[in-house]
Amino acid sequence: MTAVAIAGIGLHPFGRFPDRTVTDMGVTAVRAALADAGIDPTDRPGFQAAFCGTAYSGVAAGHKVLGALARTGMPIVDIEAGCASGGAALQLAAGAIRAGQYDTVLVFGMEKMPKGIIRSSFFEPWREEAGLAATPAYFALRAQRLMRERGITKDDLARVVVKNRAHGAQNPDAMYQSETTADTVLGSRVVCEPLHLHMLCSPNEGAAAVVLRRADLVADGAVRLDAAVLRSHLPGSVLGEATPLAGIDDADITPPTTLAADAAYAEAGIGPDDVDLAEVQDTDAARELLGWEELGLCRPGDQAAVLAAGAASLGGRRPVNVSGGLLSKGEPLGASALGQVVELTRQLRGTAGPRQVDGARVALAHTVGRGANASVTILSR
Q1: Beta-strand (E) ranges in the chain?
Q2: Is 158 helix (H, G, I), strand (E, B) or coil?
Q3: Contacts of 153 (CB under 8 A, 6+ apart)
Q4: The pTM is what?
Q5: HSE (CB half, 13 Å, CA atoms) of 82?
Q6: Strand, coil or helix: 126
Q7: CA-based end-to-end distance of the chain
Q8: 203 falls in which pLDDT band (50, 70, 90)?
Q9: Average pLDDT of 309-336?
Q10: What is the Cα–Cα distance from 10 to 342, expressed in whole angstroms?
Q11: What is the C-alpha separation between 326 and 328, in angstroms, rounded?
């Protein structure tokens, strides 16, 4: 199978930018990725296809970005898979290279999220009226279940926030660049029991871009894309957003994250123990802890012990969310998964500055979109 490498990365910081359009942010990220890949500004378009991940940017969002750069003419495909939109775009791009269809492909994602609790057309109107949504009531139900079944406490949830905010304090591209304390997290208002305000990520704005290329066309030592996998949920999950609170026992139903992780590990020829660092979906603090388990990064119920030992912090056995995660960066949906890939590429290149993980060779990125899509990406060097 044709090997795929990361030839270039680019990022527009995550936050709130009232003076910038979503197209402006996409242009910034794409221009940076093309420059990092060494694509000559006069070489138009410089890649053979483009895949754009976005959920809220409107019709032909990818065309607008590339039109502003005068780099059109090739296939441009917009892709929506909730928070996993960028991961879905990455899978399609990598697959096209591996199939021999293209040598160089651009993948980018951007979003300008509305403020406040996000409305989702995923639910029927009667479900919304009953209080069902992808945020934050659904997150709270998931957190309550994790606490009941795995012995997680509110203190553990606060520790996740403290960890990620400490990492984010060293990330100039994050929305929140300050540390916090467990008391501050637990002192923030309760949104939906057991989740306090500071345990939830902030929908926001930003963009990220990656240039993929056939590995034999890049210099030795480039970061390799060993796996890019997207999986959807199986029917019957009791907390699945397709059938919320349906009362079905889903203990034996494999979650989409595990489906994606198993396929990604097999594709990359590794196992969870080979992963040196990970970026794991933390739309809320409990989602990260559940992700560790679903990805095989810890045994069910071991999350509290991993946190207490500092194993998931910078300097620990396997740092998680050294970018600060979504709890520090915020989440522009279409840019989320690709922002993780940008961070992990920097880590594997050894250019992550004060948050550098020493000796990192294998990295994993994980996103979940609307509970119905999960993407797992594995990079190595």
Answers
A1: 4-15, 49-53, 76-79, 104-112, 190-192, 195-196, 205-214, 224-232, 277-279, 362-369, 373-380
A2: helix
A3: 147, 304
A4: 0.95
A5: 22
A6: helix
A7: 18
A8: very high
A9: 97
A10: 7
A11: 5
